[in-house]
């Protein structure tokens, strides 16, 4: 009797899913849905703020980039490391920590739809920080829907992993150059 009742409940649930198909969603651009946009700023120099003991730099989002209030902006910092065949460019997701002899410092950021504020924070006197951390830095900014950025199945830790995830989703990142 219990099996018969369970079968009736399952059948009723399956029939409840029948009905007219909903309206067609908007078409993607050339068959692809563009989920993100990316842009870079080169030669970024930070300004030291002694009262707060931190470095900061405010960068505007380029006018050709559309950022919705619900979007996430991911920030990657360029690091060049030595490889067997010469220098290798790697992109590290911020926040990024460095454990130095003086203490710990960290690149962090916050953003609005119009700008991104980059910060260098630490637990020691940052006025003594090596200029290699504060001058001529290169940052890549990736604007994606927040649902994509917070999906636990998507690895955003490095830019290479983000690109792989984008390709697996049949999406596309639109790249812009910043003057």
Shape: globular
Helix/strand-derived class? alpha+beta
Strand-and-helix sequence, N→C? HEEEEEEEEEHHE
- Could you state the oligomeric state of the chains shown? single chain
Distance between the termini: 74 Å
Helix content class: 10-25%
Beta-strand percent range: 35-45%
> What's the pLDDT, averaged over the residues?
78
Task: Describe the 3D structure.
The chain has 179 residues and is an alpha+beta fold. It has one domain (29-176). The chain is 16% helix and 45% strand. It has three helices and ten strands, in the order αβββββββββααβ. The chain has helices at 2-16, 146-149, 159-168, and strands at 33-44, 47-49, 54-60, 71-83, 86-93, 96-100, 103-111, 115-122, 137-145, 171-176. Strands 5-4-9-1-10 form a five-stranded mixed β-sheet. A five-stranded antiparallel β-sheet has the order 2-3-8-7-6, with no helix packed on it. Strand 6 (96-100) and strand 7 form a beta hairpin. It is globular and about 65 Å long. Mean pLDDT is 78; it is low at 1-17 and 25-32.
Features:
16% helix; 5-stranded mixed β-sheet; 179 residues; disordered N terminus; 10 strands; 5-stranded antiparallel β-sheet; alpha+beta; 3 helices; globular
Question: Secondary-structure blueprint of this entry?
Answer:
Elements: H1 2-16, E1 33-44, E2 47-49, E3 54-60, E4 71-83, E5 86-93, E6 96-100, E7 103-111, E8 115-122, E9 137-145, H2 146-149, H3 159-168, E10 171-176
Parallel strand pairs: 1-10
Antiparallel strand pairs: 1-9, 2-3, 3-8, 4-5, 4-9, 6-7, 7-8
Short recap of the structure:
With 179 residues, this protein is α+β, with helices and mostly antiparallel strands.
